[in-house]
Design brief:
Strand content: 15-25%
Helix content: 25-40%
Shape: globular
Number of domains: 3
Largest sheet: 7 strands, mixed
CATH topology of the largest domain: BirA Bifunctional Protein, domain 2
Number of helices: 19
CATH superfamily of the largest domain: Bira Bifunctional Protein, Domain 2
Radius of gyration: 29 Å
Number of strands: 15
């Protein structure tokens, strides 16, 4: 046995002394019997596994759905779609803004919920443009969701216990880690069972013979000296032979270097850089881009709201009045608009910037014709974090303004970004939908490990956007995920590696 038992951590000592050969060792057991915290369990397991004292016996991965605070409130008050259904049953047809006001719900939530009723053939928009019921019962999927909410009040739902229909229904109400507005929190768990190895049994025997309990003092405090309690115990020995920390000189981050390289490249092509604040209002983030305040299109941007102050003081004129008129009746853009009463309070609500296109919107009133602009924008949008998604991310956002710019020019720019900036060898362009561009195009690239993924969206701004903000010429626009371009350029397989604190990873990417 090469392990010096006197140098074992108390967490390791107490665990080894407590368990016997052949017994299952789990985190739940240590929490219950030794009063460990989960973090302490994981530390002890990691250390003892590395020393060969315990080995993994089984590993069980599973997914749970548990109610959030919002979910518990919805069990009592009802989902937005249930509340709207009940309201229409009681009061008859009503406009979406009136429903939102009566139920004290955001217009975007009302629009999304009404969309569920229409897709479930329970409601429709009548000739007076009012929501009207066409069924006496809620769609089956909503009824399943209600049943799942009731069942989950006492204990989380285990995904493996759900039917295929229930899995589909609950997934539409759940988000990983649980956003403030979601009904369920999706929790991915893993239960690992360990057992003592032969080496672990030897170490345990040595601990017992040396009378090491894990209760030894590790730190001498002033209180211990004052009370004299230090006289009644023993101290852990100093690890004089422990290796010291290696000093590593500072250096720039590879991703920061890449962002600067992209900026330099675009400036060399004649683009001017623009920027803006991280906190914006709903007006510039969506309304100025002709995204209706009540429409489910808002759902693609699951934003973070600012708690204090909730609203900005004012919106710049004449842009507020012109955009409001465009939403209500088309204004002077030649459009019919969305046909609803523009909410001047909603438009002042402050949020974290959810898309780089907000920079383009704020630039349009000041843009030169012709002109080319770009920005590197950090955006915040709730998402499940994985190899190609993050809760916050960077976009390269840009516009080209000119009388003669066209779709062919836009495709050329997308080709440059995909091949020269990202370094992709396989690229494809597919039709897309964005409320503020027509036509709209998505560009996809193929990663050697992750396969095909979307690089971003683009298109030509609709007249409702440009004319409302003082331009009457075509404007090409794009918003591309520069994080994803960096994956290709730096030869990585996971977005999280771009932001790692591991200095060795940074050194490797820089070729040092």
């Amino acid at each position: 046995m090469d392990i010096e038992v006197k140098n074992l951590h108390p967490l390791e000592v107490r665990l080894l002394r407590h368990v016997s050969s052949g017994e299952d060792i789990t985190a739940d057991r240590l929490v219950s019997e030794l009063d460990y915290k989960i973090g302490q369990c994981n530390q002890a397991f990691s250390w003892l596994t590395a020393k060969g004292c315990i080995s993994e016996k089984t590993r069980d991965r599973y997914t749970l759905y548990e109610l959030t605070e919002t979910g518990h409130a919805q069990v009592k008050d009802g989902l937005p779609v249930e509340r709207i259904f009940s309201y229409l049953q009681k009061n008859g047809p009503a406009s979406l803004p009136d429903i939102a006001a009566a139920l004290c719900l955001p217009q975007s939530d009302v629009g999304s919920a009404f969309g569920l009723l229409t897709s479930g053939k329970a409601a429709c928009m009548n000739e007076e443009k009012k929501a009207s019921l066409i069924s006496d019962s809620l769609p089956a999927e909503i009824q399943i969701q209600r049943s799942l909410m009731q069942r989950s009040q006492d204990a989380p739902l285990r995904e493996s216990d759900l039917t295929a229909e229930e899995k589909i229904a609950v997934s539409k109400l759940a988000k990983k880690r649980g956003a403030a507005s979601s009904t369920f929190r999706l929790v991915e768990k893993e239960d690992v069972t360990y057992v003592l190895t032969a080496a672990g049994e030897e170490v345990k025997k040595a601990l017992l013979e040396a009378n090491i309990t894990g209760e030894e003092f590790g730190l001498l405090t002033p209180q211990m000296i004052q009370s004299g309690s230090w006289k009644n115990g023993t101290f852990r020995p100093y690890g004089l032979n422990a290796p010291v920390s290696r000093l590593i000189p500072g250096r720039t981050n590879a991703y920061a270097d890449y962002l600067q390289w992209v900026k330099d490249k675009l400036v060399s092509l004649g683009f001017e850089e623009f920027d803006g604040p991280l906190v914006v209002n709903e007006f510039w983030n969506g309304d100025a881009l002709f995204m209706p305040q009540f429409h489910s299109a808002r759902d693609i941007h699951d934003v973070y709201y600012i708690k204090d102050p909730v609203h900005c003081k004012e919106i710049e004129e004449p842009w507020l009045s012109r955009v409001a008129a465009t939403h209500e009746n088309g204004g002077d853009t030649g459009s019919r608009g969305w046909g609803y009463t523009f909410d001047h309070e909603f438009t002042r609500r402050q949020i974290m910037r959810s898309q780089g296109t907000v920079l383009s919107a704020t630039q349009l009133p000041h843009a030169k014709v012709p002109g080319k602009y770009f920005g590197i924008a950090r955006c915040f949008r709730y998402d499940q974090v994985d190899a190609t998604h993050g809760a916050d991310f960077y976009q390269t956002e840009g516009i080209v303004v000119g009388k003669d710019v066209n779709l062919r020019n836009l495709l050329g720019l997308l080709k440059m970004f995909a091949e020269e900036v990202a370094g992709a060898e396989e690229v494809k362009y597919v039709p897309g939908y964005f409320p503020f561009t027509e036509p709209s195009i998505e560009v996809h690239i193929k990663h050697p490990v992750l396969g095909w993924f979307e690089l971003g969206g683009s298109g030509i701004f609709r007249p409702e956007v440009t004319k409302s903000l003082g331009l009457d010429v075509p404007v090409l626009a794009w918003g591309l995920g520069i994080d994803r371009m960096a994956l290709m350029h730096l030869g990585l397989n996971d977005l999280r590696e771009l932001f790692t604190p591991d200095i060795e990873s940074v050194r490797m990417r820089r070729g040092n």
